[in-house]
Amino acid sequence: MAAHLYSELASDGLPDTVIILGPNHYGVGTGVSAMVEGVWQTPLGEVEIDSIVAKQICKNSEIMDIDETAHTSEHSIEVQLPFLQYIYGNQFKFVPISMMMQDSETSRSVGESIAKSRDGRDILVMASSDLSHYESQKQAERKDRLVMDAILKLDEEELLRVVELENISMCGYGPVSSAIVAGKLLGATSAKVVSYQTSGDITGDYGQVVGYLSAKIGK
């Protein structure tokens, strides 16, 4: 799934900084946690944190903390790095932001702080999330379509609303909402679905599936 999106990103060229937003699955650390120094290591090598951008985002946010502990066990951000290394090598820097708090006010604040910190750089904002968890194929497709429709309309409030009303077990609705907010402030005017599948399309078990979406926001 992710490979479809990364194939498109590869043709867009190398950004100055990649900002990766992910949910906090384990409840460790503060409500919104950023790392501002250091390197992350994958089997493909090391990736450096963009300290200048990371510190600026934290400075521009009243809700974000500098906190490494939230990132010690969390996987939602690190799983994106090998894909980025494959298309960009180790030439890029990144900023990891983990979100335990995913309400509307928090999501908007995070998105706004990212947009304020651009300072003329070419930045790529990414949100890491699965969609429905352990639903039937039919139910997952119905619920995931509501999420996709909100993303396609660049409507972060609708996204949060349908997740709550339909009890959609999407783990990273806050990061996706923040990415939409940041994207619009940075000039995005449209979105498209690159690919959508469920785990059942691979395993053949459609009784309990997990939904996966690749979507791209841009001009």
Structure, described:
With 219 residues, the protein is of the alpha/beta class. The protein has a single domain (2-218), classed as 3-Layer(aba) Sandwich (Protocatechuate 4,5-dioxygenase, Chain B), CATH 3.40.830. The protein contains 8 helices and 10 strands. It has helices spanning 2-12, 51-60, 81-88, 104-116, 137-152, 156-165, 173-185, 200-203; strands at 17-23, 32-34, 39-42, 45-49, 65-66, 93-99, 123-127, 133-135, 190-198, 209-218. The longest helix has 16 residues, at 137-152. The relative contact order is 0.19. The model has no long low-confidence stretch (mean pLDDT 96).
- Beta content: 25-35%
First-last Cα distance: 22 Å
Strand count? 10
The total of helices stands at 8
Biggest pleated-sheet summary: 7 strands, mixed
Give a short overview.
By secondary structure, this protein is of the alpha/beta class.
Outline the secondary-structure elements.
Blueprint (H helix, E strand, L loop, with lengths): L1 H11 L4 E7 L8 E3 L4 E4 L2 E5 L1 H10 L4 E2 L14 H8 L4 E7 L4 H13 L6 E5 L5 E3 L1 H16 L3 H10 L7 H13 L4 E9 L1 H4 L5 E10 L1
Helix pairs in contact: 1-3, 2-4, 4-7, 5-6, 6-7
Features:
single chain, 219 residues, alpha/beta, Protocatechuate 4,5-dioxygenase, Chain B, 7-stranded mixed beta sheet, 3-stranded antiparallel beta sheet, 10 strands, globular
